Amino acid sequence: MRIINNTFRYFIFTLGVLSLTVIQSCRQELDINKDPNNPTNVPIYTLLTSSQVNMGYIMGGEATRMPASIVQYYGGHRGQPLDYSRYNITSSSADGLWRNVYDALMDLKEIQNKGTTDGDRIYVGISQVLQAYVFSVTTDVFGDIPFSTALQGTGNITPAYDKQETIYPALIKMIEDGIVNINSLTGMKPGTDDVIYNGNTDSWIRFANSLKLRLLNHLSKRSPGESAAFLATNPALIDVYDTNATVKFGTAASNANPIYQFDVLSGRKDNAVASTIVDKMKLLNDPRIDVYFKKVVNNGAGFQGQYRGNVPGQDTDDSGENLFSRVGSAYASTDSPVVLMSAAEVNFIKSEIYFRSGNNVKSKESYVAAITQDFTALGIANKASAYIGSSKVAYNNSLGRIMEQKWITMFQGAYESWVDWRRTGFPVFTTMPSFNMTGNTIPRRLSYPQIEINVNTSSLQNGPGIPVPFESLKAKVWWDQ
């Protein structure tokens, strides 16, 4: 069960023993003779459900909030969201994200271990793909991270840090091994315990290949030909919206969408969306604005019924919701899904790859498909053609146009938009927070968390080093150099 405002508890954080955040499925009966605080033999199908839902909360919650402020999707007006918009991001800011991703990884690793022992290779493969996903987001956010000696539980609670340039090839190999295991069709097959694809192995292969394409495209500064070479093999990809990789949520407070929990159920009312994206969508007459954002609710300042964002870093209090819009129904309703990868994203990746290869015909084709698939997924397919045909949106043989539209589309995946901005420089952000902690430099990574500074000091010192407050935010990760 999830508790509002991210107070969901774990028995031990970063790289410790198996996370206890287990959601009991209907396939498991309560045994009063077993200690619920020592789940030594949790069924693999229960672990799959809990780890996928937990992953959805992380990617839609902690992994989103700081990057969403950095790439000017969010414009918090007070408290923690305002700090993020001003780049007042400290080591302590990253504690929750770090703890939760490694707890999720421990559960996924346990699925791999159990599946390997029992011969359930489909579960093993799904676990490998999801581990690669979580590890990739983590290294993209922080840079060098514990990887090769991580996830050993009490066997190694102070793992060494691996360099990102060695992590990326290992993640590609993990995905490829996952594909082999899923394709084997060996052992027990997931069913409703798989909340992402309901056991559809074809969809899992598409997700795995799409993730591989994403990671290879991240290397556009380092190895620009690798993504094109892989795409040329014609891999099965997430290419239509009904194969999107999403984690579904419910209508009860305990299993509601993470943005809805943070923005609505918590009662905080300190976040808002940024004027940067709101004004851009208004300029383009983007019909997605109706589902991306809520109109200003109250009439105290005369803005009721308008879409209006907060200027990043501005601290005018809006606890009464008189001034600024909030995240809308598409991504912040109680049962809105968290999107891990979409057909829209994959087609934008293809468009970028084809553009860099000089194939503007296929680049345009993929660009059009990307926007069309996003509109279709949002239930407004009938509005796609007119939007794509408008002069400010139509494909114009430029990387800037591709990445601007991808930035709008990826509102639900801010951590990935942050990768795109660091790789390409698009979109160009012309508004900087008037007060910020980095000397007007947009952050390019997060600082390592305080829990690592406290608990894993030696490994940090022997690896990337102890972070320097605010200065470390400016340092580029390996693929960004």
From TrEMBL:
InterPro entries: SusD-like_2, TPR-like_helical_dom_sf. It comes from the Bacteria. The keyword Lipoprotein applies. This is SusD-like starch-binding protein associating with outer membrane. PROSITE patterns: PROKAR_LIPOPROTEIN. The keyword Lipoprotein applies. Keywords: Lipoprotein.
